[in-house]
């Protein structure tokens, strides 16, 4: 009787993790050992948070330079760039890219 219960717990854990487990984590460089130093400043009253460094226009231009015509882009919770892209067959997909290498990740 414990075996089905244990199997159900494992299955629930895997399904609860969702699509983030389906692709590699783009924040791997943040987990490397060693000293990490970041500097920043603000001009014009903008606060300097992590969300301010993501410029959608710059990211779309970089992807276009690499042959990806993204309709919209956003920063996913795992650090990957999520790009909403129309495929040649007319369907729309969310593709994920590593913001350091610009390689597509699964």
Q: How would you characterize the overall build of this protein?
A:
Keywords: Signal. Residues 1-22 form the signal peptide. By secondary structure, this protein is α+β, with helices and mostly antiparallel strands. The protein has a domain at 24-30 and 48-106: Nuclear Transport Factor 2, Chain: A (Roll). It has 2 helices and 4 strands. The protein has a 4-stranded antiparallel beta sheet, covered by helices on one side. Strand 2 and strand 3 (92-97) form a beta hairpin. It is globular, with a radius of gyration of 18 Å. The protein starts with a helix and ends with a strand. 8% of the residues are buried. The model is unreliable at 10-21 and 46-51 (pLDDT under 50).
Describe the structure concisely.
Keywords: Signal. The chain has 106 residues and is of the alpha+beta class.
Could you outline the blueprint of secondary structure elements for this entry?
Elements lengths: L1 H16 L38 H10 L4 E6 L5 E6 L5 E6 L6 E2 L1
Antiparallel strand pairs: 1-2, 2-3, 3-4
